[in-house]
Amino acid sequence: MVAYDLADHEWRVRRVDRLHPRPTTHRFTARELPGEDLAQFVMRSHDRGDTPAAWPCTGSARLDLPADVVARWAPGGSVVEHLDANHCRLTLGAWSWAGIAGILATFDAELSDLRPPELVQAGRRLARRWATMIETGDRDDPTRLS
Q1: How far apart (Å, rounded) are the C-alpha atoms in residues 96 and 3?
Q2: pLDDT tens digits, residue range 84-95?
Q3: φ and ψ at residue 90, rounded to 5 degrees
Q4: Which of 103, 95, 96 is nearest to 61 (CA)?
Q5: Could you give the CA distance from residue 50 to residue 105 in angstroms, rounded to a whole number?
């Protein structure tokens, strides 16, 4: 949720699952939203209690999971877009393209439509690293069945 903080006089991003509704009779005046693209505002406002800063890398992918499942586990500052009952698009930032690819891998779901091309390349590099790790690990594993 994007809301204006009256105490700090700033726009804030809040996780809806952490809000505690309470009745009020206070009136408010509508304000101009912060920028034209709220999704970009949310992506750049990843204050999770750590030091807020712009991520050097921002990417997205289509996941074969419902949006409510992904939203529950997505990192702070992520944007989860509902596509249909079984699919969503996750947009997130990280300090590296490999970091984004790694976070996407934690969802253990099929991924498609990765954006931008740098994220696709990071996924390929990680796949090669993991393949090498698996091959090397198998050779050095004394418990491996031949």
Answers
A1: 29
A2: 999 999 999 999
A3: -110, 125
A4: 103
A5: 23
